[in-house]
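Work Package 4 report. The design task specified in the project plan requires that, given a folded chain encoded as C-alpha cells, an amino acid be chosen for each position. We show below one input record used in the internal validation round.
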C-alpha cells in the first residue's frame, strides 16, 4: 500500500492552498497539444484543470485510493473521458503510448530515495516522450529558515489538519506526517541540490531547456524551489558543459 492510501480523502483539504503551480502545468499541457502523461497524478489537482482545458491526461500513481478520488472528481467535473488513470510506479510506468509531454508536479520525484531510483524514473519518463517531447517537474531544497521553523513541530496547515516535518540534514531527508480527525499517514522524501538534479538529467539523456525559480517562470537564483523543463537529448550534445558547469546550464537562455 502507498502511504497516501490512508489520507486519500484528506489530501484535497490538506493541500487546498496549493494552487500556485496549476496554471503553469496547464499552460505546458496546452502548449504541447497533448496527450500528457502525469506521474504522481494523485487526486487530480493538476490533471482535472488540464482536462478542463481539453487535454487528454494519462495519470499514473502508486496509490489506488488517490486514483479513486481522482476518478470521482473527474466525473464530477465532467472530464472523466479525458482522464486515463493507471496504478503504477514512476520507475516502471504502465504506459506504452508516446507523448509530447510528461510531467511530475508537486515535488513527487522527492519520493525517490536513491540516484539509482531517480535515474530509473528519469529514463522511464524519457522513454515515454516523442522525439521533440519535454519532461517538466518541480522539486525543492529546503532553506535553513524553513527547517528551523518547522522541525519536529505539529503545525495546523488547514482547520483540523496538522502536519509535522522531521528533517535529517545528513541524509537530506524529510519525514512528513499528516493527521486529521480520523485519517493519518507518514511519508519520507529526499532532496538534492539543483546541480545534482542537472547531472542526473544529463545522465538520463535529457537536455535542460530551463530551470525556473518559481511557477511564474522567473530564473532560478538560489531559491528553494526549482522547476525543470527538459527535452530529449538523443545526441547528448551538451554533456561536457553539464558536467563541467552544471549550474550555468540551469539558467534559461534569454
Amino acid at each position: 500500500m502507498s502511504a497516501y492510501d490512508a489520507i486519500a480523502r484528506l489530501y484535497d483539504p490538506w493541500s487546498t492552498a496549493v494552487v500556485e503551480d496549476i496554471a503553469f502545468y496547464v499552460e505546458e499541457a496546452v502548449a504541447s497539444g497533448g496527450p500528457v502523461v502525469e506521474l504522481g497524478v494523485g487526486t487530480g489537482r493538476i490533471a482535472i484543470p488540464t482536462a478542463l482545458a481539453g487535454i487528454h491526461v494519462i495519470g499514473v500513481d502508486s496509490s489506488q485510493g488517490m486514483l479513486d478520488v481522482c476518478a470521482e472528481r473527474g466525473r464530477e467535473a465532467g472530464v472523466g473521458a479525458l482522464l486515463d488513470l493507471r496504478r503504477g510506479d514512476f520507475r516502471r510506468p504502465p504506459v506504452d503510448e508516446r507523448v509530447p509531454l510528461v510531467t511530475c508536479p508537486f515535488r513527487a520525484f522527492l519520493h525517490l530515495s536513491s540516484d539509482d531510483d531517480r535515474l530509473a524514473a528519469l529514463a522511464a519518463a524519457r522513454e515515454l516522450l516523442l522525439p521533440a517531447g519535454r519532461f517538466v517537474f518541480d522539486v525543492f531544497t529546503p532553506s535553513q529558515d524553513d527547517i528551523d521553523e518547522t522541525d519536529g513541530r505539529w503545525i495546523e496547515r488547514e482547520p483540523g489538519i496538522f502536519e509535522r516535518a522531521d528533517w535529517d540534514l545528513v541524509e537530506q531527508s524529510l519525514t512528513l506526517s499528516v493527521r486529521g480527525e480520523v485519517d493519518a499517514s507518514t511519508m519520507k522524501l529526499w532532496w538534492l541540490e539543483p546541480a545534482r538534479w542537472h547531472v542526473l538529467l544529463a545522465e538520463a539523456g535529457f537536455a535542460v531547456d530551463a530551470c525556473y525559480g518559481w511557477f511564474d517562470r522567473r530564473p532560478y537564483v538560489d531559491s528553494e524551489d526549482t522547476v525543470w523543463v527538459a527535452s530529449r537529448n538523443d545526441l547528448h550534445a551538451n554533456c561536457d558543459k553539464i558536467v563541467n558547469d552544471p549550474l550555468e546550464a540551469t539558467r534559461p537562455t534569454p
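Residues 18 and 106 are 9 Å apart (CA to CA). Validation will be extended to a larger panel in the next phase.
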